[in-house]
Structures are given as structure tokens and as C-alpha cells.
Amino acid sequence: MSSQDIPEENLPAAQGQAHGAVDVADEKNPFADPGLPPHEHRIQDIDERAAKRSERTVALLFTLSMLATVGFIVAYLTIPVDKIVYVWTLGHISALNLALGGTLGVALFCIGAGAVHWARTLMSDVEVADERHPIEASPEVKAKVMADFRAGAKESQLGRRSLIRNTMFGALALVPLSGVFLLGGLGPAPGTKLRHTAWKKGELLINQNTNEPMRPSDIAVGSLTFAQPEGLDKHEHGYMNEIAKAALMIVRLHPNDIKDKRELEWSHEGIVAYSKICTHVGCPISLYEQQTHHVLCPCHQSTFDLSDGARVIFGPAGHALPQLRIGVNDEGYLEALGDFEEPVGPAFWERG
């Protein structure tokens, strides 16, 4: 329905021709400018029932956006990360990704579609031409701008159309929650996992080469052996994460060669157990000098003295290797007497 079908007395006042517009070119105005075309009024401008229908449509779109945002949150909390579904033309895809993408897309689309429909059917569509003016606005122009702003705010009918206003505010308030919940997708908080390993009191020391428990008699003076906690299986999920923290160096020294008092107390008959993970960037330490009791990291040559609390004597490592307190159980096997008392591997911000 166009303005031609509406009685003239029902139409809003017609807009005059733009200032300076001319129908025919002349010497003063070499280019013809007929001005703006005649304005055609929309059905919503002259029929309140049509305006109400548009209002309900906009409110419905904003409401759908709110429901989609709620659906996004529910999907994030309830759908397992590893759930796979088959979708025709897409194949097998992650159910969580499909749900999150679909609901977030609907939420954003409905807000955009509602705003566009609101602007096209209810806000004023009268075109206004302004003459160019200097960059510095005069007081009159400033007053006009403020008057235009107030008129635009009134013509938007935001104050009058409370249903649109309330549903729009609700949709805009809920959509940011999607981003908040997406932060959880960065992964679980580390908590205190970096401070603990698989070692605990009573855990047997297992030789990584033979996969057998170790007795003191199995370790010769001057030898280097690598151990891991009992129960770790290299074929199980999560093995690499655990061994990256729990890998152990077993070295046997003459008790008289041990200079550090705590190291001697935490050893057994000269057998000392230190973390295999370098405290510089986490490389596995594998080089041992029997005569000096030094171990060397092959990555950046950090050197630790195992006869003196594994302190750093060369290289970029920031602190000594953590020591594991060990003993012997009733069956004669070497066992841990607890976990490391400090985080293994490179320094991290929690250490300070």
C-alpha cells in the first residue's frame, strides 16, 4: 500500500523542495538539481494497526535472540566436548560446535534483523538535505543538531514503543553472556596441578628400561638410572602429561661425597633421586659426569651438582633440581616417601 492509495488529508505534511535546488540549469547554477524525489509514506505512517504489527515483529526477533542466547549457554553446559553427530552435507561434526555456532548465529542475526525492521518500518524515513557548512559549527548549527537529535529520538518511538525497548535491552544484555561462557573453552583452570606429580608416599620406583621395581642393590655407584612411578602405562591417555612431571634420575654416590645435609637425609645409602626435568625450559636431562657428579642438560648446557643439592653451577637454569625423598619398603624395594616439595621443571609465576 503506497501513499497514492491514502486520502490526502490522512498524509503527513509534505516536505518542501531542498534549499538551492533548481529544475533547469542556468549561468548561476550550471548543473540542474531537481531536489529530492517526492516522499512516499509507508503504511505504518498512517495505520497504527500496521505499526503495531511491525512492533510485534521486532519484539519477536529480539525475543528469539534472547532464547537463542539461553540455548547457547545450555548447549555449552550440557553437550559433551567429544560428542559427534552426522549432519547431511556436512558429515560428522562436533555436536557442541554445531550447537554453539547455530545458537550464537541466530542470536546475532535476530538482533540485526530486528534493528533493520525497526528502522525500515517505524523510524522516520524522511530524507533531509543540509547545505555544507564550515568545519567549526556556529551556535545556530549546534542548536539545530541538538534539535535534530531530539527529533530523531522522538521519531524512533523508543519511549513510546515500550515492548520494543524492553525486548531490545533484554537481547543486548544477554548476547555478551555468550562471550563470557566462551572463555571456559580456553580450558580448565590449572589449579595446583603444576605443584604436584604422580609421586606419593609408598609409590615404588620403576625402572623405565626394564619396567621393574628397583632394589638398592640394582644401582651401582656412579650409575645413572631413569625411573617413573608405579602404575604409569605409556599406552594410556595422559601418560605424557604425567611423565613430563614425574620423570626421575636415580644416581648412587658415596655418602661421604654428598655435601648437602638435606640431600643426605633424603637419600638411601647414597642413592639420590632428582627430577629429570631441567628447570630452564623443561628439557630432559640425560648426561652425567661420574667423576664430578654433575648432570648436564643437552639443550642449553645448564649444569647441576648432584653432590650439593643439585644446585646450578653453570647455564641459564634459575634454580636447583627438585629432590624426591626415598626409602626402602618391607620387601626391599625403593619407594617414594612423598611428592616433590616444590614444582618441577621451569619456573612459573606461581613460584614467586
TrEMBL record:
User: Any idea where the Rieske domain is?
Assistant: 240-335
**Molecular-function GO terms, alphabetical:** 2 iron, 2 sulfur cluster binding; metal ion binding; monooxygenase activity; oxidoreductase activity, acting on paired donors, with incorporation or reduction of molecular oxygen
Q: Its membrane topology, per UniProt?
A: Multi-pass membrane protein
* Superkingdom to which the source organism belongs: Bacteria
* Keywords recorded for this protein, A-Z: 2Fe-2S, Cell membrane, Disulfide bond, Electron transport, Iron, Iron-sulfur, Membrane, Metal-binding, Oxidoreductase, Respiratory chain, Transmembrane, Transmembrane helix, Transport
Q: Which Pfam families match?
A: QcrA_N, Rieske
Q: Which InterPro entries match?
A: QcrA_N, Rieske_2Fe-2S, Rieske_2Fe-2S_sf, Rieske_Fe-S_prot
Share what the entry says about its subunit structure, partners included: The cytochrome bc1 complex is composed of a cytochrome b (QcrB), the Rieske iron-sulfur protein (QcrA) and a diheme cytochrome c (QcrC) subunit.
In its UniProt entry, what is this protein called?
Cytochrome bc1 complex Rieske iron-sulfur subunit
Lineage of the species this protein comes from: Bacteria, Bacillati, Actinomycetota, Actinomycetes, Kitasatosporales
